[in-house]
Amino acid sequence: MKIVVAGTGYVGLVTGACLSEIGHNVTCVDIDKNKVEMMKQGISPIYEPGLDELLKRNHDAGRLDFTIDYRNAYKDADLIFIGVGTPEREDGSANLDYVFNVCKQIVDNVKNDCLVVVKSTVPIGTNDKIEEYLKEKVKNNVNIEVASNPEFLAQGTAVVDTLYAKRIVIGVESKKAEVLLREVYKGYNQPIVATNRRSAEMIKYASNDFLALKISFMNEIANFCEMVGADIEDVAKGMSFDPRIGDKFLNAGIGYGGSCFPKDTKALHWLANDRGYELKTIKATIEVNENQKYKLFRQAKNRFGSLKGLKVAVLGLTFKPGTDDLREAPSIPNVRRLLDEGAQIVAYDPVGIDNFKRIYPSEITYANTPEETLKDADIAFIFTEWNEIKSLNLSVYEELMYTPIIFDGRNCYKIKETKERNVDYYSIGRKAVLNFEKHLEKEKEMEVAIGQ
Ligand code: UGA
């Protein structure tokens, strides 16, 4: 069967590459000629571990191709996967322009019966609308059907998440579509949940929003832990042994980012509101996350009063490790606030600097290593738990910083370790360690004693 994938972002490109890996013939369509040439050479336009190898291997084997010629690609396709973006509109609703652009190209060009498979995250009911549109507009007397097939891959682990997915969800309205999709996915040997289109669309939102809720819940418990002298890391560990809770997504931090959770929580909330229903848990999830982003900034402000003229080291820029994606990364608004306060910023990230430079080309300095970042700094903020940052010994902060005061938004260090060091360490859901401050006080006392 001939498979065409529209869109070569995280969802489209990984879907296409992985389907070719299990033996299908796949053509990926994109509008950007340069991108297409790059992909033909096995170079992925997005940073995603393992993807370059997949592109090269399957392109060389003749199973995976890339083109800007959508007319030819759609003409005789049996299946067309739509994996284009559905960004957030200003009011929180999902923007479906890219999806419908692809639909227009499909109806203008298909000459064979085909199944259009929507992988993009779309509001509940959209697949029905897409089918209505396609059936109404299609030329050439072709039979088109639509199936929902939401994607659950995470950035940074997209290839593994796809090749070893925990489940595949297919939303279909006919046996024919179900049989075809089961055939497509046979090679993965993964559990398939078959349901109707609206339930499939809802499974995607409910899954992402539940994970976001889990994070916001842990962030709130973390904030309360600080007030009552509990330690969120131990609390999460203690909870994780209960299989009903599980041990994933219990990490408190400075909030979730990325291209999915912020957008999908707002989209579902908007959708329910539009029907006159308030999703209270989702509303709270969004509010808690918004507040959490600035938690460490507020603590730094409380401690210093003014941050004007202070040298601030920023470690980690991307919304999570393993990706160069900065969408909704907490680093971006925090850097804005720090700059507005008059701080001087030096920033480091193992892969995110080029993208960050597009947002802050000249207002901050960029460093090549964590060590260079920390040199003579008054404060360090950790926004992403990259291995290069987590594995940095605390003695480096002690030795290189002017005043070793650390605000760690990802709990990279164990409290026990920080207590053994001459640092001040603020983290999430754990009592601050103020060894450096104590040391300073002692020094002052000694100076006074000597002076007397
Ligand atoms: C998320 C989902 O995990 C995927 O299943 C889904 O397919 C994808 O969205 C999507 O809809 O396309 P992703 O946004 O790539 O994937 O990243 P996650 O690993 O889920 O992390 C999202 C954010 O949550 C990150 O900022 C991360 O730092 C934060 N997070 C994650 C926490 O703060 N605590 C945790 O315990 C886990």
UniProtKB/TrEMBL annotation:
SUPFAM superfamilies: 6-phosphogluconate dehydrogenase C-terminal domain-like, NAD(P)-binding Rossmann-fold domains, UDP-glucose/GDP-mannose dehydrogenase C-terminal domain
Active-site residues, as the UniProt record annotates them: 260 (nucleophile)
Binding site for NAD(+): 30, 35, 86, 121, 263, 327
Catalytic activity, as annotated: UDP-alpha-D-glucose + 2 NAD(+) + H2O = UDP-alpha-D-glucuronate + 2 NADH + 3 H(+)
E.C. number(s) listed in UniProt: 1.1.1.22
Residue ranges crossing the lipid bilayer per the database entry: none
Pfam families in UniProt: UDPG_MGDP_dh (PF00984), UDPG_MGDP_dh_C (PF03720), UDPG_MGDP_dh_N (PF03721)
UniProt keyword annotation of NAD present: yes
Residues given in the record as substrate binding sites: 204, 249-253, 257, 320
EC main group: oxidoreductase
Keywords annotated in UniProt: NAD, Oxidoreductase
Highest taxon, organism lineage: Bacteria
GO molecular function, one term: NAD binding
Protein's UniProt keywords contain Transferase: no
UniProt GO BP: polysaccharide biosynthetic process; UDP-glucuronate biosynthetic process
UDP-glucose/GDP-mannose dehydrogenase C-terminal domain sequence ranges: 313-415
Pathway where it operates: Nucleotide-sugar biosynthesis; UDP-alpha-D-glucuronate biosynthesis; UDP-alpha-D-glucuronate from UDP-alpha-D-glucose: step 1/1
Family as reported in the entry's similarity comment: Belongs to the UDP-glucose/GDP-mannose dehydrogenase family.
PANTHER family the record matches: UDP-GLUCOSE 6-DEHYDROGENASE TUAD (PTHR43750), UDP-GLUCOSE 6-DEHYDROGENASE YWQF (PTHR43750:SF4)
Name by which UniProt lists this protein: UDP-glucose 6-dehydrogenase
Species assigned in the record: Clostridium chromiireducens
Gene: ywqF
